[in-house]
Specification:
Length: about 325
């Protein structure tokens, strides 16, 4: 009997890429979004051997409803929407795609930094409103010779650091889990996060969202930053206390922020960040390119195909399940 895989939710027009890969292991793919019924009903009817999920929460109750499921594959880098402990207890692989959009997210991070530093959005709005004044707005500062601080130093942060260094920036990083021997000479590893915040002209967040990192940047941390510094976040929104960030920008505690992610997406109309001129917001789009989306879909499907074929998937998050 062929295995069954349910794709809970997605933003793709079709699932031809996934169907082709899963067909190689004789697995049928069911698109839950195409069904005019709740996800719970689709899962109960399909009794799937695997799940692919984009935004859907995969918690203990959902896992209990699919007792034959062997793998949950997240189409993305983050995995905070999946209950890892519950999956591990049930012997279910949880996988992600940690390396599919490194060029895109690093480019997006630098783009936000350049847009803030060079006042691109502000100047554009002023010109379109009929104003032509090179002196308008806050003073611009040179990136060359300034300092970029990286919170966490994974693959994306490393690439951001390389691109920032090419712009003439000094790069420092804080990551208690990184091996100092693996840090290039162009990057200075800082043990104290407060020191990084105080020294940086721009702080870029690249940590995963976990209980330990939720609210990592709050009022106290923002107060440590320079008044001329920018905060960049292309990781996860819950890492930053957005109310505290809005307050800090309003009173001039920090110069502004470039955010691709928010704690609530899309934000409520009364979000304090929406009314601030010194905040640039993009809709969790840093990962996006034609090439990255294809890579994401292929790798997410191959994670499932490997598990259904009796192999260890290429990108296992809950390694404890291997014990």
């Amino acid at each position: 009997m062929a295995d069954t895989v349910v794709f809970t939710d997605h933003t793709f027009g079709d699932l031809d890429i996934e169907r082709g890969i899963l067909a190689d292991v004789d697995a049928e793919l069911i698109d839950a979004e195409s069904r005019d019924e709740p996800l719970e009903t689709v899962l109960a009817d399909a009794d799937p051997d695997g799940i692919i999920a984009m935004y859907a929460d995969v918690d203990a109750d959902l896992l209990d409803s699919v007792p034959n499921c062997r793998v949950v594959s997240r189409t993305g880098i983050g995995f905070d929407t999946v209950d890892l402990d519950a999956a591990t207890e049930r012997g279910v692989y949880v996988t992600n795609v940690p390396d599919y959009c490194i060029p895109e997210v690093s480019d997006h991070t630098i783009a936000l930094l350049l847009a803030l530093t060079r006042k691109v959005v502000d100047y554009n709005d002023r010109v379109r409103a009929g104003e032509w004044d090179v002196t308008a707005g806050r003073t611009m500062r040179r990136l060359d010779g300034s300092t970029l601080g990286l919170i966490a130093y994974g693959d994306i942060a490393r690439t951001v650091g390389e691109k920032a260094a090419a712009l003439g920036m000094d790069v420092i990083a804080n990551d208690p889990y990184v091996d100092p021997d693996e840090v290039p000479d162009s990057v200075t590893l800082v043990d104290d996060r407060a020191e990084l915040l105080a020294e940086s002209d721009a702080v870029s967040i690249h940590a995963p969202l976990t209980p330990a990192t939720e609210g990592l940047i709050g009022a106290d941390e923002l107060a440590t930053m320079k008044e001329t510094a920018f905060l960049l976040n292309t990781a996860r929104g819950g890492i930053v206390d957005e109310d505290a960030l809005a307050d800090a920008i309003r009173v001039g505690g920090v110069a502004g922020a470039g955010l691709d992610v928010l704690a609530e997406e899309p934000p409520d109309a009364d979000s304090p960040l929406l009314g601030l001129d010194d905040v640039i917001l993009t809709p969790h789009a840093a990962y996006n390119s034609a090439e990255s989306v294809v890579e994401l879909r292929e790798k997410a499907a191959r994670n499932v195909a490997a598990a259904l074929a009796g192999e260890v998937p290429p990108y296992v998050v809950n390694e404890a399940v291997l014990d």
